[in-house]
Write a structure and sequence with these properties.
Elements (H helix, E strand, L loop, with lengths): L48 H20 L6 E4 H14 L2 H4 L4 E7 L4 E9 L6 H5 L7 E4 L11
Antiparallel strand pairs: 1-3, 2-3, 2-4
Length: 155
């Protein structure tokens, strides 16, 4: 990427992982060196409009919590309804399909047969889920994601 458009005080560092091709970003899309500067770093489908819309929505949800204390949207289910919802998501979810290995659905496990279902969460947020989404993890979580197998494009 060409970082010459940035002034010296606002120039994000380059990613070592991607050999300088993209800016160095945290799991919440924020620059590692310039606070409040965000990037979609084109992982999985994020480089196309089909994927970018999902990362843009995820960033919006991250910022809603960060600046307005509005937690990540979630739907509460009991076990039977949860199973039906998971089957529907496997068959119809476009965000975790387009952003395979990058976005996941998260099922928060609560007491008394209750579950909270969060859609299309960046996988990097899982280690700090409560801090970055405002959703409390009581008894753990389950993720639903799509991932191509090893050597998918190179048999």
């Amino acid at each position: 990427y060409d970082n010459s458009i940035f002034g010296e005080n606002a120039k994000p560092s380059e990613s070592f992982v991607f050999q300088g091709k993209y800016p160095d970003v945290k799991e919440n899309y924020e620059s590692n060196t310039v606070p409040n500067m965000f990037f979609d770093y084109r992982k999985s489908g994020g480089g196309s409009i089909q994927g970018f819309r999902y990362t843009a929505r995820a960033l919006h949800r991250i910022l809603e919590w960060r600046y307005h204390k509005n937690p990540w949207p979630a739907t509460t289910f009991r076990i039977n309804a949860l199973i039906e919802h998971i089957i529907t998501r496997i068959n119809q979810a476009s965000g975790i399909y387009q952003m395979f290995g990058s976005l996941v659905d998260v099922i928060l496990i609560h007491k008394r047969n209750k579950f909270e279902y969060m859609q299309e969460v960046p996988v990097g947020l899982l280690t700090n889920l409560e801090e970055l989404t405002g959703r409390k993890m009581v008894r753990g979580f389950i993720t639903l994601t799509f991932q191509y197998g090893r050597n998918f494009s190179n048999p």
